[in-house]
User: Fold this.
Amino acid sequence: MKILVCISKVPDTTSKINFVDNDTKFDENGVQYVVNPYDEWYALVRALELVEAQGGSVTTITVGTSADDPTIRKALAIGANDAVRIDAEPVDSFFVSKQIANYALKENFDIVMTGKETINYNGAQIGAMVSELLDMPFVSLASKLDVVSNVATLERDVQAGIEVVEVEFPFVVSASKGMAEQRIPNMRGIMAARTKPLNIIPADDQKPLTSVLKFELPSPKTGCKYLDPESMDELVELLHNESKVI
Amino acid sequence: MSVLVFVELKNKLSKAAKEAITYGKNLGSVTVITYGNAPDNVLSEMGEYGAEKIWVYRSLNEANDQVLCNFIVKAAKKTDAEFIVLSQDQTGKAVGPRVAAKIEAGHVSGAISLPENSDEFTVKTNVYSGKAIAYVTVHSKIKVISILPNSIQPVENKVDSSISNFEEDLGLGRIKIKDLKPLGEGIPLPEAELVVSAGRGLKGPENWGIVEDLAKSLGATTACSRPVADIGWRPHHEHVGQTGVAIRPNLYIAAGISGAIQHLAGVNGSKVIVVINTDPEAPFFKAADYGVIGDAFEVLPKLTTAINNFKSSQV
Assistant:
């Protein structure tokens, strides 16, 4: 089984979010980067579990610059066999998807995995775009993935509930919570990661289709109005007349 | 300008569908496409929100991503659509970016506003798990816009509409749907306007009656924090937060939830937040509009009574 896992670096969840250059750029000052939790905890770990049980290999792919290398090494320390970095700024989701698809087209992967979204852009776009570019079915928001020979059974989140689906190789899947448990890399993994292959590949030309004009912070809450536990009628009155939500 | 809106219908016109049609109507003349066997009155109700043409693929019954993608792309070609609008729900997440990639169109994921008035098409989306807003500009001629549920107020805007059948070869889906474990009744969380949520402060699953009572008197959907779902007190689909469901209701009432940053990431799109907690230092109060420092076991029943009194006074 040959699995490709798409991983991205994101600011740690506790990072302070600020912008610089007239609100056009994320302020990286003091920000700690981590592997996007959905990519790491769920997609990568499940890929490793499948390969450990049934044989095969796990390759990670990232579209980014050398600034991504520490998070890529983290993925290798957790257990990926090798890593690919397409050497470019990830300018928009189509650009990124195209780079990943162009690489995957040459490699015959059985499963291509992503996290359900990144916690910085929250776009949930890459899996669907890559699957279209590869002409593969896409199982989105999957919380369970099992494989028997070349058929996978998955559970995914749909409006009506949890759907159980079956799909043959090759396919693309986006992982949500529940697919696996977070793994902490051990010292041996960290040492081994230093010498595992990280192949840096030049990017293909692709004009971005979208761009971010600027960022903005949401207007801060004006402060909390405290009410006495005995004055719930007053709270209801405020919800009705002041904030008009009931 | 021709606008194609994709919606999914059941026995009634969902709020998500009304939002998408309203959004489309603001951009141009709307053709709505849908599939399955929704009754005619539901189809024609879309005219109330501005759908001029309604195309139904009746024999299509399954949400298979590749088939739906072909459906949307074919309909977009037929209508010469410059905008393709859909809801950023589970189906939208699977299909929207796929459509965009197929026709090499720019895709906006989770738009929360109509375009700004300028030469270029720019709309707002939530980024950094709701901690910031990005203004995204689309450069391609055709634009695919997935709108975040509860971001656009549906507006009635009646037009003359026609309903017709759509039949074309869309290829075969490769995902076999084996089973569905359905959610309970009620309004699904992403669409809910009123949400009552509780956390570990409730001390055990047997105490959820007071949460459900409040939800019932408000007509709200219930939710919970991550630890509560993880230890199995409540079903996972109720978990709101970073790794659970992200919601944007008008009113979010949280009892016995401290308000960790991961929880806030899923609820900070709420218009009004009410926090009930015994600990005055709970970080959630910083994100709240109204706070009650007190025991959920006492406050929730009092609030339920107050709501019931209010409701009966309204009649």
Notes: The two ends of chain A are 54 Å apart (CA to CA).
